[in-house]
Amino acid sequence: MSQAIAYIRVSTAKQGRSGLGMEAQQAAISHFAEAEGLEVVEVFTEIETGKGADALSKRPQLCAALEKARRRGCPVIVAKLDRLSRDVAFIAGLMAERVPFIVAELGKDADPFMLHIWAAMAEKERRMISDRTKAALAAAKARGVVLGGYRGGPAVDHQKGTQAAQKAAQGFAEDVGPLVQELASGGLSLRQVAARLTEQGIRTARGGKVWTAAGVSRVLARSS
């Protein structure tokens, strides 16, 4: 049975602590290796962002996986290409390491040329999403939408707390709803819309800094 090295990466410490992202990648790699008759002899796990041209220097576990694979003369398996990077230049740099990579999602026959193509497509999609987000923000600002979060609404008291909270939530949805609708209509999932709102520093209805897919869904429901 041929050997292989597995590499697993999550981008945030929160994902690393939860184990969910890592478990999904581990399962995908294990199923792929079993189906292809490969023995995973070692697993390297990393919690680090993939951003930046010098990302390899920030990933000691990836460097270690490359070195171990080079010594054993075997490939490195990842669950998805973005676990390596979405940056074409970074992928090209990895190919220069002369260590074969296998992306479980793409199959064993995806050669370096195909990996470059997939990386280029992912990079282009990321730029398009960024452009759509900026356009939606500009359009919302032009309409006078306040993007820093809803700060008005009546004070909540013990007797009318529920009504006041509902009124405040409705007012917030009316303010931010058009922006959220524009992002969603651009083909983004609820999770992607939440990520864009968080990146742009737009506060949630309760003044929080991090949006969730559920929060986006509630705004869409109230503003539709």
TrEMBL record:
Quote any Pfam family the record assigns: Recombinase
Where is the catalytic site?
S11 (o-(5'-phospho-dna)-serine intermediate)
One annotated GO molecular function is: DNA binding
Its keywords, alphabetically, are: DNA integration, DNA recombination, DNA-binding
PROSITE patterns the UniProt entry points to: RECOMBINASES_1 (PS00397), RECOMBINASES_3 (PS51736)
Q: State the InterPro entries in the record.
A: DNA_bind_recombinase_dom (IPR011109), Recombinase_CS (IPR006118), Resolv_N (IPR006119), Resolvase-like_N_sf (IPR036162), SSR_resolvase (IPR050639)
Where is each Resolvase/invertase-type recombinase catalytic domain found?
Answer: 3-144
What biological process terms from GO does the record include? Answer: DNA integration
Read off the PANTHER family from this record: DNA-INVERTASE FROM LAMBDOID PROPHAGE, SERINE RECOMBINASE PINE-RELATED
| Stated name of the protein | Resolvase
Q: What organism is this sequence from? A: Acetobacter cerevisiae
